[in-house]
Specification:
With 290 residues, this protein is an all-alpha fold. It has 15 helices and no strands. The chain is globular, with a radius of gyration of 24 Å.
């Protein structure tokens, strides 16, 4: 989503109080019924119009828009041994998530009543689709919903299809019937052979989905392991043994047992426990270490 033109670049950077006031006012503005109605009815793409509304808040604080946005970009997560400087990063994170929710809600509100089933997909709709998919995957509630589905679904193929289904739903929110929309996405290299920016966006969208899937699987496994660590003395012992291994030894152990671990982790809890109980102590400890 491109930034709107700002004020003159002259001026001083905002102080901490002004940045806090901007973030609080921004969240309030984005959650308001007035903003929802404005984004629903405006002819400008909702993402671009939302950025304009956000940047305009700097004007009310007497701060140059570009300098204000630059200062916000520089708010970083606090280090482990640092305070969050009055909650600045937490406020910024809430602002970002609220912006994503507001943007996606605006697209939902503008969903056409009739879906396109034959015409080509315009470039601007393709870009909107990529932006919307990426924003949705970044939201914490999306991650929690997918994690719940992953934990309840043994088949990895079905887990992977959850993200694809979400993407297909986004196509229809933007007015393209999902099968036709998927066909249009597959034709991007043919329809836009010289559009390097669009090709890069396509690759970034694909990579985002892949990375999100991997992250979700890793988080699911880590949560399960944490739960088992609390109740399973064998798991604690396995962790101690792994801590004494060299990186080369750990790598060889993981490679040897990767397929077995993948199958076992995909089993329902009762079936997994039953399988582990049938193993010899030596085999069970090796799998737990892997």
């Amino acid at each position: 989503m491109a930034s709107a033109p700002g004020m003159s670049s002259m001026g001083s950077r905002p102080n901490k109080h002004q940045m806090r006031d901007f973030l609080v006012a921004g969240v309030e503005m984005m959650e308001s019924d007035g903003t929802r109605e404005l984004l629903k009815t405006c002819s400008t793409p909702p993402g671009k119009r939302l950025i304009e509304l956000q940047r305009a808040i700097w004007d009310t604080l007497g701060v140059d828009q570009d300098l204000g946005c630059k200062a916000l970009d520089e708010i970083a997560p606090p280090a482990d041994d640092e305070d969050d400087d009055g909650g600045a990063f937490e406020l910024k994170q809430e602002f970002v998530w609220t912006a994503m929710r507001t943007y996606l809600r605006a697209l939902d509100d503008k969903k056409p009543a009739v879906l396109e089933t034959s015409k080509p997909m315009p470039r601007e709709v393709i870009v909107e689709f990529f932006d919307a998919c990426n924003a949705r995957l970044d939201l914490p509630e999306t991650c929690e919903r997918l994690l719940k589905f992953f934990s309840e679904t043994a088949e990895r193929e079905k887990r992977g299809d959850a993200i694809a289904q979400m993407q297909r739903e986004q196509l229809e929110i933007l007015g393209f019937e999902k099968k036709h929309g998927c066909a249009m996405l597959e034709k991007i290299p043919q329809d836009f052979p010289d559009d390097k920016e669009l090709q890069a966006r396509l690759q970034a969208w694909y990579s985002k989905a892949q990375q999100s899937y991997i992250m979700l699987e890793q988080t699911m496994i880590a949560r399960r392991m944490s739960e088992e660590m609390e109740s399973n003395p064998d798991m604690r012992r396995a962790q101690e043994l792994v801590g004494k291994m060299t990186p080369l030894e750990r790598g060889a152990l993981i490679e040897k047992n990767a397929k077995k671990v993948q199958v076992i982790m995909g089993l329902p809890s009762e079936a997994k426990q039953e399988h582990m109980n049938k193993l010899s102590t030596e085999d069970r400890m090796e799998l737990l270490q892997a």
